[in-house]
Amino acid sequence: MTVLNTRISLVALACAFVSPSLLAEDSSLTNPAISAVLNGYYQTGERPLAESPDGFGLGETELALSANIDDMFYGKVTAVVEMHDGDTELNLEEAFIQTMAMPAGFSIRGGRFLSDIGYLNNQHLHTDSFTDRPVVYRAFLGGHYFDDGIRFNYVAPTDLYWTMGVEAFKGDSLRAADEHGEREFKKVGVYTLYSKIGGDIGDNSSWQAGLSYLRNENGQVTAHEEGEHEDEHDHGDEHAGHSHAASYTGKNTYGADFVYKWAPNGNYKYQNLTVSGEYYRVSDFTPVDLHPEDAPSQDYHQGWYLSSVYQFTPSWSAGVRYGEADTQELHGDHFHGQKLKESEVSLAWHSSHFSTVRFQYTNQKGTNFDGIEDDNIFTIQYIMSLGAHGAHQF
């Protein structure tokens, strides 16, 4: 058998993620796939807009159940156990059904699920190569955006992998501040559009690029929120991170992402390299009746990251990542510009595909962020998977 025939195409893996039947072909309602992911850490400092306080702690402990319902539908439930202020809380991250037999490359997903915008967002946190999501995700998407809604997806019959879709969500976690409950929010608050295209480069490499747009009907600050919006952010970062709510919102969010993967002859078991990056711009967040002299220097937030992870042996991988978030904070009747920069280096030991122990160093630098100082943070993390576990996304 030739190397070409045995090579695993990353595009095929991406298609498999879109088609749950390929991931759950051995499971059924009488034999569901059941899994748990254990996540723990020790950290020497606080990370802004993040859910992990310093010291010993538990990250997201994930419990998942999935199965083919019949020949037409697939279902999945993912619950996450988290610690917050000494209390144990159970959150439902996914509870959706998806069609499996629609014609012409179409599929529909409904319920609660991870939005497919960007590159990282539709992946579970335990699949990341770093201990936390990039700062741009923590600021604009609450770490990872999942919600109640519906998705229509289409995979084109082209030589290159090409998928596109539209989603509609409640959007509660992306609402602008409303401390006194005086605002009437729209019941369907978020709409997204996305398109991703990718392919193989010879036998060794694959790539994928994407564009995303998110319309947030409830993301614009209103005039009556001036004055209390400052208080909400001055001491609300911990709550925002814990509740998976975005700390900075706006009406329109534009995103672009790219990922490149390399492995000798397409065999990722022994050696591989992944380079990825994303950019987001959140615009139209200021009140429409704001006085011109009080307007911010720029009516948008923006952020990005670039990362590279190299697995140099089957048991060891190393990664570097740099990210920034450039935001505007409302203080009373005027805005202050803010910036947060993070430089990160990680080293991970993988005893197998199901276990990881990670060591990470983070250097953070904040400008005009209340309570955030320049700091060096060291983290030790373990991630252990039990039970059946589907293939990870490309």
TrEMBL record:
Cited InterPro entries: Porin_dom_sf (IPR023614)
Signal peptide: 1-24
Basic and acidic residues composition-biased segments: 223-241
Keywords from the named record: Signal
UniProt region (Disordered), positions on chain: 220-246
Keyword Signal: yes
Name assigned to this protein: Zinc-regulated TonB-dependent outer membrane receptor
